[in-house]
Amino acid sequence: METPLEKALTTMVTTFHKYSGREGSKLTLSRKELKELIKKELSLGEKMKESSIDNLMKSLDKNSDQEIDFKEYSVFLTTLCMAYNDFFLEDNQ
């Protein structure tokens, strides 16, 4: 039986692969794939402007190959988790 944390990890991995490979490599997200993932999987995605997505892509794409690999995606999720944690800490004070 999967624990809640294992389910969360599985969801993060399967979500990446749900969108990767639609354009090009199955192991990376293009800008278009990243945009679609953010818009469909994160409520904040609906509020993001094109320029914000472009800036996010640039900041995540550490090797400047115009694609987001799983490691770069993981950094995004880690940063997002830290922001959620900060929000909940502030909310509880």
Automatic annotation (TrEMBL):
InterPro entries: EF-hand-dom_pair, EF_Hand_1_Ca_BS, EF_hand_dom, S-100_dom, S100/CaBP7/8-like_CS, S100_Ca-bd_sub
Signal peptide residues on this chain, from the entry's feature table: none
Pfam families to which the protein is assigned, alphabetical: S_100
Keywords, ordered alphabetically: Calcium, Metal-binding, Repeat
Gene Ontology terms: cellular component: nucleus
PROSITE patterns: EF_HAND_1, EF_HAND_2, S100_CABP
Domain (EF-hand) ranges: 48-83
Gene3D superfamilies from the UniProt entry: EF-hand
A GO molecular function held by the record: calcium ion binding
Domain of life: Eukaryota
CDD domains cross-referenced by the UniProt entry: S-100
Name of the molecule in the record: Protein S100
